[in-house]
Amino acid sequence: MPQKKQKKSNTQDLLQEYDIPDNRHNFSKIWDLLKKENPDVKPSLNYSNPLELLIATVLSAQSTDVQINKVTEKLFKKYRTEEDYANADLRELENDIYSTGFYKNKAKNIKDSARIIIEHHNGEVPKTMEELVALPGVGRKTANIILARGFGVTEGIAVDTHVKRVSRRLGLTKHSDPEKIEQDLMSLVPKEEYDSFSMTLIYHGRKICHARKPDCPSCVVNKLCPSGVIYMSQYNL
Ligand code: SF4
Known about the structure:
There is one protein chain. The chain is mostly helical. It folds into two domains: about 15-35 and about 160-180 and about 195-235, Endonuclease Iii, domain 2, CATH 1.10.1670; about 50-150, Endonuclease III, domain 1. It is built from twelve helices and no strands. Helix 5 (about 90-95) crosses helix 6 and helix 9 (about 160-170) packs across helix 11. The two termini are about 15 Å apart. Bound molecules: iron/sulfur cluster. Iron/sulfur cluster binds near residues 166, 170 and 225.
């Protein structure tokens, strides 16, 4: 049984109180089972071009994809080009994206990104990691998504809150920093599966490996997951 950490964490996630052992040797079996469980993963944000993908992904921070799809349904009809966003009245744009949360930052970032795309990239969403992460509000997670789904370019693995939580519970990484987690995962996952791996862990995190109450008894990888062993023994499941 993995050891409990000395200091009790103040989180409601019991699993964060344990040192999860390195479980990378089980990666192939875990990945095969998760793929079989989720054979048809696809992006859950709606978009029809790289600009819409960029906007939707920036908006999705700290929100749900369902909520973002509601907002973008109207937004993408009102703002169709980089110029529309760059020339938008900031207050009006804030109002249009208000329900996504952090709307002031997001509106400013979107407007500034649109201006940079017009001034430095001939009005086209850039296609390299370096250029994408130079846009305000775009980190490696967003850039990986845009590269993979907007341009078919495989660069890295998008690490969101679900990918972070599930990969740590599975013992595939000990890191908390998304960029370090990404490096650990890239050393395990075949490059052509980077994007599907990210989406699969997101599906699994939403459906089974919930933040507060993971459904370990129903989980297809519970016999290979060190956290599942802890969770089920703690709750006699
Ligand atoms: S066994 Fe439990 S903790 Fe491990 S991946 Fe499955 S749901 Fe998550």
